[in-house]
Amino acid sequence: MEKSYFLSMTFNNIVFQGRNQAYGAYTLRKAYANNITRAAILATALFSGALVVPLVENIIFADEQEKLTKHKNKVIELTGVKLPDLPPIEPEPAKSAPVAPPAPQENVATEKFVKIKVVDDQTTTTEDVPEQSLLSTKNIGTTTIEGELPAAPSIATEPPVGINGGGGTDATTSNEPYVYVEVMPEFEGGHKALMSYLGRKLKYPRQAQSAGVDGTVVVTFVVGTNGQISDVNVLKGLGFGTEEEAIRVIESMPNWKPGRQNGRTVPVRYTLPIRFSLK
Known about the structure:
Elements: H1 9-15, H2 25-30, H3 32-60, H4 62-72, E1 110-112, H5 132-137, E2 139-141, H6 191-201, H7 206-211, E3 215-223, E4 229-236, H8 242-251, E5 259-261, E6 264-266, E7 268-276
Parallel strand pairs: 1-2
Antiparallel strand pairs: 3-4, 3-7, 5-6
């Protein structure tokens, strides 16, 4: 393979004739051949070292690895050691299930059960069907036994749970208010009329204005069967006279339309948020 003419010093001398040859491209072109040779030698040495080093390491340290392996696998046998004799383990006896004592035979009055069959008038029957009064007071069995009448079982019934969780009593027998009914109570004129009423009657307390209090007071009250408001309480307040003002306005409201459950009026507990805004 012929050497490239463009990389020869003759070509470089011609190109850089009359130019600065102390540094720059001329120096790089001049040292190019030597740099290529050094790089090839260094790459070959590194590649050869990567292949040769593991082989040399296996040869040098083969004896030590073999010693370590033999040392790990060495079994030490104990001689002359006598272990004490252990007592034989006896199996535990099988536990038998407890046998319940037989129930005592009571002499209870029993009436034989007779299956009713439909027959014509000419057929004669040999068994008489017991009366209903006998069946209601005696046990029913396969034979008729004369004895003591069985004790009548006592049936304890619990009152059903009502809608309001009050044990099944309705509004006529219990004063416990409902929380939710079929027809909820309503202010006369609807929600819009209620907001208008609150806007007219509600007065912002001076203490709340001075303190810059702004927020919502949540009030709960009971609307009775006649629509009258009672049992007014504050669930969430702001202080500075806002709670007292909310209670005053609620207690002064006219009667509402009462709530209805199953077609009758019932007391209902109602929750109403009242907004106090400085704006």
